[in-house]
Amino acid sequence: MRVLQVCAEIFPLLKTGGLADVCGALPGALAKRGCDVRVLVPAFPAILRGVPDAKPIAGAAGLGDGTRLLCGTLPGTGVPLYLIDAPALYAREGNPYADEAGQPYADNHRRFALLGRVGALLADGLDPAWSAQVVHGHDWHAGLAPAYLRAAQLHTGRRLAGSVHTVHNLAFQGTFGLEVLGELGLPADFYQTHGLEFHGQVSFMKAGLHYADHITTVSPTYAREIQGEEQGCGLDGVLRARSGELSGILNAVDDAVWNPVTDALIPARYDGRKLAGKGLCRLALQNSFGLGPQTDRPLFGVVSRLTEQKGFNLILEGLPELLERGGQLVVLGTGEPALVAALVHAAKTHPGAVAVKVGYDEDLAHSIVAGVDVMMVPSRFEPCGLTQLYGLKYGSLPLVRKVGGLADTVVDSSLENLDDGSATGFVFDRFDARDYGAALRRAFALFKRKGEWQEVQRRAMAQAFDWDAAAAQYLAQYERVMA
Ligand code: ADP
Question: Closest ligand 1 atom, CA of 22?
Answer without folding.
Answer: 7
